[in-house]
UniProtKB/TrEMBL annotation:
The name this protein goes by in its record: Carboxypeptidase-like regulatory domain-containing protein
UniProt keyword Hydrolase present: no
InterPro entries: CarboxyPept-like_regulatory, DUF5686
Keywords, ordered alphabetically: Signal
Gene3D superfamilies: Carboxypeptidase-like, regulatory domain
Signal sequence bounds: 1-18
Pfam families: CarbopepD_reg_2, DUF5686
Length: 819
């Protein structure tokens, strides 16, 4: 009986929803892609695919009026009788006749300017009409590659060999998302993803979401890698010129003006193309714009095209965005990619208010089994039909996926990748069992060899085991590492175990121990590579080291959303070290400084005495306003630049063999990255701390600051270190306040300066301050350029820095590499 009711329910569900299908072409029979198609005076909408094919779901039988709207073509109406004999439609659109006579031209003013002024004047009111809504959302993303090289910088590119053709071209990524969206301007979002599909991965989750499709031209800026100025922004006339190209009438006799958007300066974050403005209300009817990678400050990107189409509902008198496409082409290191996203919004509702708890920190939630939907589900809910290319990709990769899951296949792949070569002894080697999801890694000495004056040439080798659980997104690993110094003739082994216990609570456990050589500053401000070069070539041995035998354990987890806590305890025996070599590649009469940072000219006095200590650390991190995504395999936290991040900690040293070495310390830190419209970003990093009962503690436990004496910076720590401060000149066991400010103009100033704008660089302005007791405050002021380089490789940075401490101290040029 239950089965009969189920069949009856399915029968009524099928007959109560029909699909109007067909194809849209021009008069020459050319298919028209991404036509805006909707049922008149409703929010039931779809779009045609790349081949002009479309499907529109209709929930009730009878006659329905369907609108076909496409830029450059006359809008068409089609009355469709939805019944069991519904036949595919063949829609032909005629080219639009753009008339210049529809607008009175004032010889004293550009008519486009007046239209844009009115659009700016009325945008707040127009935006308010769609300020709160719920809608159904569909998106599809596709990435293609063409003539993929077999190697890049000597590394094989064989990951995609089975999914691309003989010309090394094909689809790399294809995915779809269906969701319910609740949105309130400017940025409150709640999205429930009902279905998610990734070609060739039945456990995958598509990264397409409504938040990534939220490009609102009524706002002043559109968020890309740089904030792009909207052509109807409050200050739009500072960035654009406009040309009136004519007007036309919609099917409901509303006049639409076609305005060409012309950037005043091509180097700025602006767009080119067209915006269509409805006369009288000055609402946006459609946009068709393009940007370059240079304008978006993304060197890998060549061009990006964004199109939006809006429809009008006579009942609500509201223009709503129905369809949007985002197409791109990019390339770097010989890899050429193209692709895009198709977005469809439908079934809008505009409530006057939402309930108080509608919007929470959970902005996206995947329903259970969202990635397990059958093909039959997708065939009934997909608003945009797949192309033949996409159908073949799903079929090919689904078949390949079944093959890839088999033990025979995975073993064959492992047999190929697990081959051992003689150079692997130096470079490292991995042995994998893909079926059981574990890997054994051997770290060779080639990338782990360096030089310092304590150990001389030193190297290390390591062996580790890693096993992952893909369903829960967890792992555990353990391993050992053995280092050897050729000058001090000492082996130093360590071993560790670490595990990610939960991807929902972000729980991690680590146990670590052994014998190691460490910098006095645990943040290691000077890298092994930079120290090796400065020591061997310039006899500047800035790295200062001590030895410890230790055992440590730590556990961290998210207590509740936004608050992470970590507890760690370490027992350590600390030992002093001395220089053991004066070897150099450049022979000169200069002497190396000692390994004592407090007495650099004394080789006989150690920086510390041998001692032991137990150290307890309790640390917390609060990300105010943290938002997150919930998936069946865990919780994924998102940043929120509107609010700062607060870090705090308590550190206690106890159980030392010398009571003078016991101490307490409290710390706090605030970080934030402020976006200032299109004027750039300001980074803030403020640290403070206070020691208690620490008058005679070991130098190891002092607060050490990230100085620099090499004039080279590698990495992204520009806002976490000083440029000219000697490494241990300000170390303290008392209180301290450290501030770093850096403004990145994102090209706002540099793009306006003739000739210099050709560099495509970013102006960097910095200020740093350090205050500790019994020492005059130390400041640095800097000005520099980043995003320097050649072609698309733009990883270099140059800064001029001046330092002050009770007066001018010195200046210098810093050279940075930011990967």
């Amino acid at each position: 009986m239950k089965k009969n009711f189920t069949l009856l329910f399915l029968f009524f569900a099928i007959i109560s929803q029909a699909q109007i299908k067909g194809v849209v072409k021009d008069v020459n029979g050319k298919p028209l892609p991404f036509v805006n198609i909707f049922e008149e005076n409703t929010y039931n909408a779809t779009t045609s695919n790349e081949l002009g094919k479309f499907e529109l779901n209709i929930k009730t039988p009878g006659k329905h009026v369907v609108i076909f709207q496409y830029l450059g073509y006359k809008t068409a109406k089609q009355v469709v009788d939805v019944n069991e004999n519904l036949q595919p439609l063949d829609i032909v659109l005629l080219e639009e006749e753009i008339s210049l006579n529809e607008v009175v031209v004032n010889i004293n003013d550009n008519p486009a300017n007046e239209i844009i002024r009115n659009a700016i004047k009325n945008k707040k009111e127009n935006s308010k009409k769609t300020g709160k809504y719920t809608a159904d959302f569909y998106s599809r993303g596709i990435f293609r590659v063409k003539n993929l090289p077999k190697t890049i910088l000597g590394q094989k590119l064989d990951f995609f060999d089975e999914v691309i053709d003989s010309t090394r071209s094909g689809i790399l990524y294809l995915s779809e998302t269906v969701s319910k969206v609740t949105f309130q301007k400017p940025d409150k979002l709640k999205e429930v993803i009902l279905a998610s599909k990734v070609s060739g991965n039945d456990s995958g989750f598509s990264f397409n979401s409504a938040s990534s499709a939220n490009f609102d031209f009524y706002e002043n800026y559109l968020e890309f890698d740089a904030n792009v100025v909207s052509p109807i922004a409050d200050n739009a006339f500072n960035y654009y010129k406009y040309k009136f190209e004519g007007s036309f009438f919609t099917e409901n006799r509303q006049q639409v003006n076609k305005i060409k958007i012309i950037p005043r300066r091509e180097t700025e974050p602006v767009m080119s193309g067209y915006i269509y403005i409805v006369d009288d209300t000055y609402a946006v009817y459609a946009v068709d714009v393009s940007l370059t990678g240079k304008q978006m400050q993304n060197p890998a990107l060549n061009t990006l095209n964004l199109k939006q189409s809006f429809s009008y509902n006579n009942n609500t008198k509201i223009w709503t965005k129905n369809t949007q496409t985002l197409d791109f082409d990019a390339g770097m290191f010989g890899v050429n990619m193209s692709g895009g996203f198709t977005y469809v919004f439908s079934n809008f509702e505009f409530p006057e208010q939402f309930e108080k708890k509608t919007f929470t920190a959970e902005v996206i939630r995947f329903e259970e089994n969202a990635n397990k939907k059958e093909d039959s589900f997708w065939q009934t809910i997909r608003p945009v039909p797949l192309t033949d290319e996409e159908v073949k990709d799903y079929a090919k990769k689904d078949a390949l996926q079944e093959k890839k899951k088999s033990k025979v296949y995975l073993d064959s792949i492992d047999a190929k990748r697990n081959k051992f070569g003689i150079m692997d002894v130096l470079n490292g080697y991995s042995y994998s069992n893909s079926y059981k999801k574990w890997t054994i890694n051997y770290n060779g000495p080639a990338l782990n060899t360096s030089f310092n004056t304590v150990q001389g040439w030193n190297t290390s080798v390591g062996l580790s085991f890693f096993k992952r659980n893909e369903d829960k997104n967890t792992y555990y690993q353990f391993g050992t590492n053995v280092g050897y110094g050729f000058s001090d003739e000492a082996f130093r082994p360590t071993a560790y175990f670490s595990a990610k216990l939960s991807n929902k609570s972000k729980s991690y456990l680590t146990v670590f121990g052994g014998n190691s050589v460490n910098q006095f500053n645990p943040e290691e401000p000077i890298s092994k590579l930079v120290n090796t070069v400065s020591t061997l070539f310039f006899k500047d041995n800035y790295m200062k080291l001590y030895e410890k035998n230790f055992a440590t354990a730590s556990f961290s987890r998210e207590v509740f959303n936004g608050l992470n806590m970590t507890a760690a305890v370490e027992y350590a025996e600390r030992k002093p070290l001395f220089n053991t070599t004066d070897y150099t590649l450049i022979k000169n009469d200069d002497l190396y400084t000692s390994n004592n940072p407090l007495l650099p000219l004394d080789e006989t006095v150690a920086a510390i005495d041998r001692h032991n200590l137990v150290k307890l650390n309790i640390a917390g991190r609060i990300k105010f306003g943290q938002e997150y995504i919930t998936r069946p395999d865990g919780k994924y936290n998102l940043g929120n630049d509107k609010y700062p991040t607060l870090l705090f900690g308590y550190e206690k040293g106890f159980a030392s063999n010398n009571d003078n070495y016991n101490y307490d310390k409290v710390t706090a830190r605030i970080t934030q990255n402020l976006t200032l419209g299109n004027k750039g970003e300001t980074g803030i990093n403020i640290r403070a701390g206070k020691f208690f009962n620490a008058e005679n503690i070991s130098f190891v436990d002092y607060k050490h600051f990230n100085g620099n004496e090499t004039h080279v910076s590698i990495g992204t720590s520009f806002i976490n270190s000083f440029n000219l401060l000697p490494y241990y000149a300000a170390s303290t066991n008392d209180s301290y306040l450290e501030t770093h400010f850096e403004h990145n103009d994102k090209g706002y100033i540099m793009n306006k300066i003739p000739l210099l704008n050709k560099l495509q660089s970013k102006l960097m302005l910095g200020f740093k301050n350090l205050a500790v007791p019994d020492r005059k405050p130390y400041q640095e002021f800097s000005v520099g350029l980043s995003n320097l380089g050649f072609g698309k490789v733009r990883i270099f940075r140059v800064d001029y820095v001046r330092s002050y401490q009770g007066g001018f101290q010195g200046d210098g040029v810093m050279f940075g590499i930011n990967f």
